[in-house]
Design a protein that fits this description.
This protein has helices at 59-67, 73-79, and strands spanning 2-3, 6-7, 11-16, 22-27, 35-39, 44-48, 53-56, 91-94, 100-105, 108-118, 121-131, 134-139. By secondary structure, it is mainly beta. The chain has 2 domains: 7-69; 71-146, Lipoprotein localisation LolA/LolB/LppX (outer membrane lipoprotein receptor (LolB), chain A, Clam).
């Protein structure tokens, strides 16, 4: 991730149980700085490896306060699956296989560089998200659909 303040890298493990309930583990390089973000319809809680806990009404606010990242997590859950967020207008470009190649939504530009077949579904495995202040490259190493 690149912000005006500098660049950071992290590993994410995202477990989405339904539309409103998820757990997101954020780990710094070599497993340092682990944090667990648990979200529900009404609240998001962040627990850090040093025992601190914070709460906010949504994950975007919590990530900005804790890490300085401003990612629209509610939309990201669609974007990582190669879908526009149905709650917002968008501009999109598709390839010959009907995969998203480019998506503009909520002030973000999402570029899809690679897809992988997972149980007969093509899902993104590499994408880049940019807005005027932020750039994030996501490389998805493993999908589990269950």
């Amino acid at each position: 991730m690149r912000t005006p303040q500098g660049a950071q890298s992290a590993s994410l493990n995202w477990q989405q149980r339904n539309a409103n309930n998820y757990t997101l583990y954020v780990m710094g390089p070599l497993g340092t700085g682990t944090a667990k973000i648990s979200g529900s319809a009404n609240q998001v809680t962040l627990a850090t490896s040093d025992g601190q806990t914070r709460s906010a009404p949504n994950a975007q606010t919590l990530l900005l306060q804790q890490f300085g990242w401003q990612l629209p997590i509610a939309s990201l859950r669609y974007w990582v699956r190669g879908l526009p967020d149905p709650h917002y207008s968008s501009k999109k470009q598709l390839d010959q296989y009907n995969h998203l190649v480019s998506l503009q939504q909520r002030g973000w530009q999402i570029q899809y560089q690679r897809y992988v077949a997972v149980t007969n579904i093509d899902l993104p495995s590499k994408l880049t998200l940019t807005n005027p202040q932020f750039r994030a490259k996501l490389i998805i190493k493993q999908w589990q659909i269950g």
